[in-house]
Amino acid sequence: MYILYAVSAGIAHRLAITTDGSVWSWGNGGRGKLGHGDQQHQLLPKKIEAFTGQRVVAVSAGSRHSIARIADGSVWSWGQGGWGRLGHGDEQSQLPKSQEALQRERGVEEQSETAAARAMSAGRERASTRSSVGRSSHRLSLGRD
């Protein structure tokens, strides 16, 4: 039995984190937003295997995409990439993948682990993250206005 830590509801899909840091998704699988490498609908929660061996601490379900924050502060996104909403520098649909732009920002102070995404949100057409590097705060919005 798994114990839920957090849940996020999108328009037609849901994400949940269990206390062991694994991520589960269910609902409409269109555009790959469930993170399973297909577009199959899931009537029951199914574990997202891309996060095996990592501890996810936050998730947010958008309308066509999803994002997750890992314990190390990295942010991952997946689903439909239109309008750059995934933050991977293209408009391709993706399996769960780390956002390289945020990794480069973190690289400045990665050894001290003070640079990490602190807050995030997936909306209908965009995703936003807020991070801190030292005493500076940065906001990155991905997608269209």
Quaternary structure annotation: single chain
Radius of gyration: 14 Å
The helicity comes to: under 10%
And the CATH topology?
A: Methylamine Dehydrogenase, Chain H
Estimate the strand proportion.
over 45%
Overall SS class: mainly beta
In N-to-C order, the SSE pattern is EEEEEEEEHEEE
C-alpha termini separation:
42 Å
Mean pLDDT: 78
State the helix count.
1
The CATH architecture would be 7 Propeller
Walk across the major sheet and give the strand order: 1-2-3-4
User: What would the principal axes of the Cα set say about the shape?
Assistant: globular
The CATH homologous superfamily corresponds to Regulator of chromosome condensation 1/beta-lactamase-inhibitor protein II
User: Total number of β-strand segments?
Assistant: 11
Largest sheet: 4 strands, antiparallel
Name the poorly predicted regions: 106-117, 126-145
Number of domains: 1
CATH uppermost class: Mainly Beta
Question: Gist?
Answer:
The chain has 145 residues and is mainly beta. The protein has one domain (4-143): 7 Propeller (Methylamine Dehydrogenase, Chain H), CATH 2.130.10. It has one helix and eleven strands, in the order E-E-E-E-E-E-E-E-H-E-E-E.
Task: Tell me what the structure shows.
Helices cover 6% and strands 47% of the residues. It has 145 residues and is mainly beta. It has a single domain (4-143), classed as Methylamine Dehydrogenase, Chain H (7 Propeller), CATH 2.130.10. Strands 1-2-3-4 form a four-stranded antiparallel sheet, with no helix packed on it. It is globular and about 40 Å long. Mean pLDDT is 78; it is low at 106-117 and 126-145.
